[in-house]
Write a structure and sequence with these properties.
about 190 residues, mainly alpha, single chain, Arc Repressor Mutant, subunit A, Rna Polymerase Sigma Factor, Chain: A, 2 domains
Length: about 190
């Protein structure tokens, strides 16, 4: 079996035996997905880069205990979510004084630029971002990371029924927000 067709689970088995090449293969296959997921969770590309790398260090450490009850990609996203939440909690604990805050340049768009950027996709993204965290996360995993309801439940550690309920309310809120903003349900 060559590296391109070797399954993720087989690669995790190789990692568990200390095979660094297997870690590199898993990194090449899954880094972009993990990075995008963490970037969405944290809102920071720099934090996402650090956390995504930590996920693969964790893979190296935890490979011997991987039981294969979920897909490797789901397992990695679960690790990523835990690390992202931990980093966000730590970030909230960090303190910035008023003088430092005043030195941060205002990168906000002008009203003209904001208006120019308005289209349905951008509006939808804003509405997703405005959702409560529990709804935003299921939408992000489902639509931006292609996870199934079962996989989302595994990543978040919640029952499938809860995922479905959150998905229902998230879609309802998004539909209401789009309608209130004057967008019809069709595309574009």
């Amino acid at each position: 079996m060559n590296a391109a067709t070797e399954t993720d689970r087989a690669l995790v088995d190789r990692v568990a035996k200390g095979d660094r090449a297997a870690v590199r293969l898993l990194f090449m296959r899954h880094h972009a997905r993990v990075y995008r997921f963490v970037a969405r969770q944290t809102g920071s590309e720099m934090m996402a880069d650090d956390i995504a790398n930590e996920v693969f260090l964790e893979l190296w450490k935890q490979a011997p205990s991987f039981e294969g009850r979920s897909e490797v990609s789901t397992w990695l996203l679960g690790i990523a979510r835990f690390k992202a939440l931990s980093s966000l909690r730590k970030k909230k604990e960090d303190w910035i004084d008023d003088d430092d805050a005043a030195q941060v340049p205002d990168g906000a768009d002008t009203p003209e630029v904001v208006t120019m950027k308005e289209d349905k996709a951008a509006a939808l993204r804003r509405f997703v971002d405005a959702l409560p965290e529990e709804h935003r996360t299921v939408i992000d995993l489902a639509y931006y990371h292609g996870q199934s309801v079962t996989e989302i439940g595994e990543v978040l550690g919640i029952p499938v029924a809860t995922v479905k309920t959150r998905m229902f309310y998230a879609r309802k809120k998004l539909g209401e927000a789009l309608k209130a903003a004057g967008y019809d349900r069709g595309w574009p």
